């Protein structure tokens, strides 16, 4: 989120309304809370609450600055923007469990204890302040409680069809300027900033300008239509289609909060039908090589529909992986058609996030080839196959792996692969551990050669304590970005990398715990479940990691979609101050939970000793 949610913009009422659980209070209860709200300035180094001192008379909500919570002089955690302290003391009239000091100047919103206690009569409020981290994160990543919703409803609202910003020109623009803007922006309509707004479409340029013999300097308002027929973003695609058919129009305005946010066309409706994952999957089977360049937009449109339909982020990433498999199989078919029959049986393995079925649309290529014994001509055939597939996948929006983990470099017979993998597992160097971790996550997507070599090696070495310790140490190379007192540590430009600091540590833990359990499961959440069954992880820890993983993936997918709509480069780094207060709070809590579980697991398996 951006703009109005950045701290320093919202007033007290707006800030509180954006913060769970106040965002779900009924109007009367919320109005009572706002009426009782006090805005307090607390200078740096001031003690706000004292451990075992008088019970807190207020709930303190941090608006600006940082408070430090300590016990017996040992810093425990911090409360930052959107977080609060004093709640247990207020609810139970108990003595504070921590000393609370202002690390820097604090701006705090205070709510009297009697008001807070009355608010707990609201089930939504009571649930939020008493439930655990996993439950809160689950609600955040599944805002509509639609986890597992059918994919068929994913393209249900017109909001999913808005792929770009509204293209507007001043009301004084002539038709020549309008035509040039349409060409430059690749759109079929332009909105003129009149009151009310007007719209000029390519059909208007054809029928009202060219067919009438008008010149390019004709004022756009003379050929425009207004008012623009519009619907709200929550309108179903079916209803929008009916509206357009009833009025025999080809463009429909879409409003958000009463303001025109975009325009959809009949072409968008056709693409909506064509962007369902089932339709895309069917089309991939016959997509020609020349059409691969158009696949990124198709996939982004599909993901947009899935997210707007309320699908769980983990279901979305599974769907993306399914479609990537289809692209890969089609690329292999096209390459093999050019090269002729394969010289022997083979298996094309996908690696990494796609192998785990956890792929977003910001993933590079990771794959390898296994084939039967063949001669030099056969080896050349496989190298040419890999080279052509790499080119096609790159055209489809999957960049080459910077580390070269692709079938052009990683190809060989079953015997070769068995020796490689066994060598990586037993070698003591860091590079070998890196190679091992990559090939732990593998899945065959094409070919008829059975591959189980890696799983056999995993089962054979699961009881190797030294190897487990080394893998545990390797699992700690990616850690949540937390500094002193659990403050989230951002980069110089104020960003946090969700993949490096959030997703990767959980993936590494899942891989490590699956190895300990001797399991060949691939998906991270499945690995966490088997770890619970085998005693490597407590149920509570597994639930927290699962929900943190889902939360991080939700943020990544939304961030990627926003960049795609703006035609900006995709990135895993989000601006911390651009997140809502509640999301900043949940992000910090998720980082803290992941870091705590990561540290305890690495310690249990001896990883700290190995890394010294």
Structure commentary:
This protein has 612 residues and is an alpha+beta fold. It has 4 domains: 3-130, Sandwich (Jelly Rolls); 156-274, CBS-domain (Roll), CATH 3.10.580.10; 277-461, Beta Polymerase, domain 2, CATH 3.30.460; 465-611, Four Helix Bundle (Hemerythrin (Met), subunit A) (Up-down Bundle), CATH 1.20.120. It contains 24 helices and 20 strands. It has a 4-stranded antiparallel β-sheet with strand order 1-8-3-6. Strand 13 and strand 14 form a beta hairpin. Helix 16 (414-426) packs parallel to helix 18 (453-461) and helix 20 runs parallel beside helix 23. It is flat.
Number of strands: 20
Q: What is the overall shape?
A: flat
- Using the 3D structure, state the CATH architecture of the largest domain: 2-Layer Sandwich
Name the strands of the widest sheet in spatial order. 1-8-3-6
What's the Cα radius of gyration?
A: 28 Å
The helix/strand class is alpha+beta
What is the CA-CA span between the terminal residues? 41 Å
CATH topology of the largest domain: Beta Polymerase, domain 2
The fourth-level CATH homologous superfamily of the largest domain is Beta Polymerase, domain 2
Low-confidence stretches: 1-8, 142-155
CATH class of the largest domain: Alpha Beta
Number of domain modules: 4
Q: Largest sheet at a glance? A: 4 strands, antiparallel
Fraction of helical residues: 40-55%
Q: Give the integer mean of the pLDDT values.
A: 85
Strand fraction band? 15-25%
């Amino acid at each position: 989120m951006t703009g109005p949610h950045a701290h320093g913009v919202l007033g007290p009422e707006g800030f509180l309304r954006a913060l769970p659980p106040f965002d779900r209070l009924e109007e009367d209860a919320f109005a009572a809370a706002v009426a009782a709200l006090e805005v307090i300035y607390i200078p740096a180094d001031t003690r706000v609450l004292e451990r075992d001192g008088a019970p807190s008379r207020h709930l303190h909500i941090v608006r600006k600055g940082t408070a430090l919570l300590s016990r017996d002089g040992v810093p425990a955690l911090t409360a930052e923007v959107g977080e609060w302290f004093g709640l247990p003391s207020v609810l139970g009239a108990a003595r504070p469990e921590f000393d609370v000091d202002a690390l820097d100047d604090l701006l705090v919103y205070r709510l009297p204890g009697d008001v807070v206690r009355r608010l707990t009569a609201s089930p939504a409020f009571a649930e939020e302040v008493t439930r655990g981290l996993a439950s809160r994160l689950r609600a955040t990543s599944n805002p509509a409680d639609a986890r597992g919703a059918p994919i068929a409803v994913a393209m249900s609202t017109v909001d999913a069809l808005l792929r770009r910003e509204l293209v507007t020109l001043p009301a004084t623009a002539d038709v020549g300027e309008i035509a040039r803007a349409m060409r430059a922006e690749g759109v079929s309509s332009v909105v003129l900033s009149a009151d009310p707004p007007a719209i000029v479409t390519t059909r208007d340029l054809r029928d009202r300008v060219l067919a009438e013999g008008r010149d390019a300097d004709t004022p756009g308002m003379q050929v425009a239509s207004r008012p623009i027929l519009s619907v709200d973003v929550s309108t179903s695609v079916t209803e929008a289609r009916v509206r357009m058919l009833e009025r025999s129009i080809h463009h429909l305005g879409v409003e958000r909060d009463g303001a025109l946010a975009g325009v959809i066309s009949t072409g968008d409706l056709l693409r909506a039908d064509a962007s369902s994952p089932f339709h895309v999957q069917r089309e991939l089977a016959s997509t020609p090589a020349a059409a691969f360049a158009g696949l990124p937009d198709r996939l982004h449109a599909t993901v947009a529909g899935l997210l707007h339909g309320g699908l769980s982020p983990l279901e979305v990433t599974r769907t993306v992986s399914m479609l990537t498999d289809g692209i890969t199989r089609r690329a292999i078919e096209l390459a093999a058609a050019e090269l002729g029959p394969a010289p022997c049986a083979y298996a094309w393995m996908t690696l990494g996030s796609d192998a785990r079925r956890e792929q977003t649309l910001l993933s590079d290529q990771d794959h390898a080839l296994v084939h039967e014994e063949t001669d030099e001509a056969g080896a050349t055939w496989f190298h040419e196959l890999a080279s052509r597939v790499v080119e096609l996948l790159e055209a489809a929006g999957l960049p080459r792996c910077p580390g070269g983990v692709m079938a052009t470099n990683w190809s060989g017979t079953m015997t070769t692969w068995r020796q490689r993998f066994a060598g990586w597992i037993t070698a003591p160097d860091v590079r070998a551990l890196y190679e091992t971790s990559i090939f732990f996550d593998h899945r065959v997507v094409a070919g008829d050669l059975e591959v189980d070599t890696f799983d056999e090696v995993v089962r054979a070495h699961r009881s190797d304590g030294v190897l487990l310790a080394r893998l545990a140490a390797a699992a700690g190379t990616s850690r949540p970005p937390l500094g002193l007192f659990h403050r989230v540590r951002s980069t110089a430009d104020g960003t946090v990398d969700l993949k490096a600091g959030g997703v990767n540590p959980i993936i590494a833990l899942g891989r490590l715990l699956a190895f300990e359990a001797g399991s060949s499961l691939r998906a991270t959440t499945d690995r966490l479940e088997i770890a619970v069954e085998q005693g490597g992880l407590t149920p509570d820890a597994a639930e927290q990691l699962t929900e943190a993983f889902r939360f991080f993936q939700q943020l990544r997918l939304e961030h990627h979609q926003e960049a795609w709509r703006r035609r900006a480069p995709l990135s895993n780094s989000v601006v911390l101050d651009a997140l809502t207060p509640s999301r900043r709070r949940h992000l910090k809590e998720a980082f803290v939970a992941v870091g705590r579980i990561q540290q305890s697991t690495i310690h249990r398996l001896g990883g700290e000793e190995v890394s010294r």
